[in-house]
Amino acid sequence: INDGSSGPPGPGGALPPISDSFDAVSFQNNPGFHALQQTIVIPDSILSASLTWNDRILNHAGVFSDPNQEWRVVILDTSGAILHEAFSTSPGDTLLQAGPNSRSVNLTSVFQSFAGQTVVVSFEEQDNRRYFNATLDDVALLVTVPPVIENECNSGGWSTYVNVNTGLKIFKNKGECVNFVATNGKDLPP
User: Could you tell me which of 12, 86, 127, 160 has the fewest CB atoms within 10 Å of its CB?
Assistant: First the structure.
C-alpha cells in the first residue's frame, strides 16, 4: 500500500497516491509476479459491462515483453486459466507512464459469454528484467442488468437502464422496456 511516504526499490522514487490517501503499488527486489484479484459472479443476463481504473506504469527495464515484463488485466476462471486479456502493455509501448493513466475496457461481450459463472478479475505485474512498478487505484466494475418484470419499467424506471460504456439510455421509452420484458429479452432496442 502506497501512502506516498516511501519509494519502491530502484530508480522510481516515491510518488503520491493517485487519489485519496492510498493506492497499491508493486515493489520488487528480484524477478516476480504481483497480482491484485477479485472473484466475482457474473450476472445471468447483462446489457453492458465496463471495467475502469487508474494506473501508473514505470518499467525501468528498457523493454516490455510478454509475459515476463508486463502490466496486464485479465479475466481468469477459478482455476487460474485466462479467459480474456482485457489490457496489456506491449513491446514498443512507452516505458514510463507516470500518469496517472485513466483506462476503460468494454467487457460486455466477454461477460455475456460467461454469464452466470464465477470469474476472477486480476491486475497483474510480472517482471524478470529490471525494476517495474505498477500502481493501481480507483477500480470500478460497472454492469447493467436487464429488467425482468414490467414494474421495473414504471415510474421512469426504463430511463435508469444505461449502457455503462457509452452513457446512453438503453430504452427510449417505457414501451421499449415493457416490450423487452414481455419478449424475455429477445426484443432489445438497437
Answer: 160
